[in-house]
Amino acid sequence: MTVRRQRGATLGLAAACVLVVIVIGVGFFFLSKIIGGGREVANATDAGALNVAKQAIRRGAVNLTSAADQEEFGALCETPNRLDLLSYNRIVAKAMIVAKNAADQNTATALANAGIMHNQVNTLGNTLKAQIAAACATPGGALASDFHAISTNSNTKMWNGSPVQLANDIVPGYMKVGSSANVYFHSATRGSLGNWQPPTNTAGQNAPSGDPYSAGYNAVTVGGHQFAFVPLFPETRPHLVDRGNFSSAAPAGITAAPALPNSFQTNSRALEGKTGVFGGSMACAIVGCIDRNFAARIPKGFVRVSNGPSANTVNTSVFPLSTVVNDGSNDIFNNELFHAPGINMDQNTNIFSHSPSGPAAMQAIGAYNATRGNFPFDPMVGNVGGGDPALWTGLAEDAYNNPAAYDLRSTSAQDHFATQAELDAITNNPNIKNCIYTMYDADPTTNPHCSNANTAMWMGNYNRAAGTASDHIDTSAGFTNVEFMKADLLAQRAHGYRSATTNAPNPSGLKLWGRSGGTVLRPPANGSAKPFLGGKINYLAAGSPMELLNEIGGCASTSTIDKIVDRMRQVNPEDGNLAQHVRDALASSTLPLGKSFYVYADGSSVYMTESFTAASGYVTKAKADSLTPDGASGTGATNCNTGNYPLSGWTVNTRKGVGGASIGDAGYHEVPFTKYNGTSVGNDQAIWTPSSGYNNFLGELRFEQTATGDTYSKPN
Fold first, then answer.
1. 607, burial (CB in 10 Å: exposed 0-12, middle 13-18, buried 19+)
2. In 3-state terms, what secondary structure has residue 108?
3. Residue 438 to residue 436: CA distance in whole angstroms
4. Helices 108-135 and 142-151, packing angle to 10 deg
5. What gap in Å lies between CA 364 and CA 650, rounded to an integer?
6. What's the rounded Cα separation, in Å, for the pair 280 and 272?
7. Which residues lie closer than 8 Å to 14 by C-beta, 6 or more apart?
8. Average of pLDDT values for 71-94?
9. Contact (Cβ atoms closer than 8 angstroms) between residue 458 and residue 336
10. Which of 55-64, 439-448, 487-496, 544-553 shows the lowest mean pLDDT across its residues?
11. What is the pLDDT of residue 441?
12. What are the percentages of helix, strand and coil residues in the chain, rounded to 5?
C-alpha cells in the first residue's frame, strides 16, 4: 500500500513537472517570437529609413515653370527644369557667383540683379523644402510610400507577417553642420572671382579636381545676401545614424536662406498577432551621393562680342553719300581757281577772265567806253562808237576784236566769250575783283564776290566739273566713322561747296586698317593715307574680333581679353587650355559692322556664334541682343584703345605727300581743301563691360571708333 502510494505520488509529481516544463517552453517560445518579431520590425524600419534617405534627393522636386527660372537654373538640374535636392546646391552656387560678380562690380544694377536671383533661389528652396515635408506625410507622401515599399515587404514571420508601417509622419532633420555639400568651387573659378575663398567643409574632403567641397549648413553672405548649402556627402552612400545624433531643429545662423533637410527619422509599428498589441521601432538615416558632385558654374553663361553700327546709320551727312568726287582733275578749283591769277571778274558786267592780261584788257575797254560819242568815227582807226582814238588803238582795240585772246568771258554757257555788246557795257575803272582758291574761306561773307553762284557760272563756262562716282559704296560693308567723314567731305565737294564741315558725333563700329609687314596702316603710319581715286570709298575690310584686338594693340595680352577668359572660367573651369580656346573662338569668324556674336563654353572648348541653336538651353538671340551689361567698363577697357590718331590730311581730305599719298584725295593736285584746323582725330576702342551673370550674361566686348570733325575750306 505504501509502495503504491509512493508510486502515485511520484507519478503526479512527474506529471506536474512535465506540465511546468511545457508551460515554460511554450512561454519561451512565444517570448522568442515576440523578441524575434521585434527585431524583424526594427530591421524593416531600418531598411525603410535607408530607402527614404536614398530617395530623398529626388523627392519633392520642383518643376521650373517660369521662363526666368528655366533660363537661370534649368541647365543645372539633372532632369531638365526639375529641381531636386541633388541639384539645389548647384543653383545656390550659381547665385553665389552672380552675387560675387555683382559685389565686385559694385553697381546699383548688378547688386539689384543679384538680389533678384537670390530671391529666385530662396523661393525655389522654400518650395522644395515644403514639398519634401509634404513627401514625409503618411499616408500618401512620396517618402512615406518609399518607406512602405520596403518595410511592408520585409520578413515579419514571427509576428505572423504583420506589415511594418509608419506610426506617424517622417521627421526631416539637419545633421553634420559644416560637412561636405556636393558642390565645390574650382580653383579657376575662385581665381576669376579675385581668389575668393568661400567656406569649405570641416572634414578636409576634396573633390576629384583637388578642390575642397563647400561647407553645408554654413551661412555665407555674398554681396549682402545670405546663402546656405545642404550637406549631401559626396562619395558616401546613404546610411543609418544614431538617433541620439539626429536633430530636427534647423541649423543656427541660417536666417535669410532656406535650410533644406538632409536626414530623416522614421517611427514605425506593427501588430503582434498573438497578443494583439502593437510594437514599433525608430530609425534615422542620412542622405549621400556617391558620384554626383559638381563644380560651381554658370553653364549657359556667355559673353557678347559686338561691333558698333555703320556710321551712316547713326550720323548725318550733308548730302547723301551716293555721289562723291572721285576725279578732281577737271574741278575748277584744280584748274582756273588753283593756278594764278585765278579768275578776275568785273562786278558790274560779270565779264571774267583767267588770263593774266584780262584785267588790263577790261580796264582799257572801260577807259575807252567812257569817251564814246566824243570823237568822230575814223574808219582808218576803227574807233567803234566814236571814242578817243588814242585810247582805242592798241589794247582796247585788240581785246574788243579778239576777246578770246584775253579770255574775256561771260555767262555760264560753255566757252562763251564776251560779245561786243557785253564789252560795250564795261565802264571806266571797272570794279574788277579777283578770286582764287585761297579766298574761299568757310565764311562766305569774307569774299562775297567769290560766291557759289559766281563759281557755278565759271564752272559752266569753263566746262569744269569734278568727276563723280555712283557705284562707289559697298552696301554690304557699311561705313566706319573715318570712311563716313571721308565720303561726306567728298560729297560736299561734288556739290560745289567752297567749304565743308564733316563730323561723326556718334561712335561707329570698327574695321581693319590692314598691315604692311608688321605695321598697322593707321595714321600716322606711312602708307596709311589712301586717296580715293575710284573703287569703293568704304574701303576698309571687316575683321575677326581677334584681328581687331591685335590691330588696336595691347588688347590681346592685357586685361581686356583676360576678363573674357575669367568669365569663361565661371562657365567651364575644368578647361586647362581655356585662354587659348577663347582666342581661337575670337579668331573664328569675321565680325561685320552692327553685328553681335556670342562666346560660350560647351564641352571641352569655347565657341563663337551669331545665334544659339533652338532648345540648347541658352537665351534667345532676341533676348541676348537686348541685354545691357550691369557693370561698368573698367581700367582694362580704358587702356585698350589706340589713342587719338590724326585724320585731317591723312584719311579725310587726303593731302599729297602725307602718309605716302602720291596725290591728293580724289585726284586733286594737292588736297581737296587746302585749309583745315587739323583737329579731326579718330580713336579705335575695344570696350569691356562686365556683367554679373544674371540672365547668364557675363559681359560684353564692344568695338567702337570715335571721330571728331573739322572744317575745311580754300578748295584746291
1. middle
2. helix
3. 6
4. 40
5. 47
6. 10
7. none
8. 96
9. yes
10. 439-448
11. 83
12. 35, 20, 45
- How far is Cα 171 from Cα 157, in angstroms, rounded to an integer? 28
Q: Please say whether the beta carbons of 103 and 222 come within 8 A.
A: yes
**Residue among 598, 610, 593 at smallest CA distance from 508:** 593
Strand partners, 707: 504, 682
Quick one: pLDDT at residue 248?
Answer: 95
The predicted-structure confidence for 662-689, as pLDDT tens digits, reads as follows 999 999 989 999 999 999 999 999 999 9
The H or E element spanning position 8 is: helix 2-56
> What percent of the chain is predicted at pLDDT more than 70?
91
Q: How many CB atoms lie within 10 A of CB 83?
A: 27
Question: Grid coordinates standing for 669?
Answer: 593736285
How far is Cα of residue 716 from the mean position of the Cα atoms in its chain?
45
Q: Would you say how long the chain is, in residues?
A: 716
Nearest Cα neighbor of 706 from 677, 678, 679, 685 is 685
d(CA 601, CA 572): 6
3-state secondary structure of 458: helix
pLDDT at 79 over 60: yes
3-class DSSP assignment, residue 528: coil
Element housing 190 (H / E): helix 187-192
- pLDDT value at 635 more than 60: no
No. of H helices and E strands in the chain? 18, 27
Q: How far is CA 392 from the centre of its chain?
A: 82
In 3-state terms, what secondary structure has residue 500? strand
Q: Cell 582814238 belongs to which residue?
A: 389
Q: Work out the angle between the directed axes of helices 2-56 and 142-151 (0-180°, nearest 10).
A: 140
Residue 24, Cβ density class (10 Å: 0-12 exposed, 13-18 middle, ≥19 buried):
exposed
Query: Smallest Cα–Cα separation from 539: which of 488, 492, 591, 472?
Result: 472
Longest dimension (CA), the chain: 213
C-alpha cell at 380: 582808218
Q: What is the pLDDT of residue 29?
A: 46
* Banded model confidence at residue 610, pLDDT cuts 50, 70, 90: very high
634 class by beta-carbon count within 10 Å (0-12 exposed, 13-18 middle, 19+ buried): middle
CB 509 within 8 A of CB 309: yes
Instruction: Please state the pTM of the whole predicted model.
Output: 0.86
Q: Are 246 and 263 in contact (CB under 8 A)?
A: yes
Band (155; pLDDT cuts 50, 70, 90)? low
Quote the mean pLDDT of the chain: 91
Among candidates 414, 410, 412, which has minimal Cα distance to 426?
410
Give per-residue burial for 202-221: e unless 16+ CB within 10 Å, then b: eeebebeeebbbbbbbbbbe
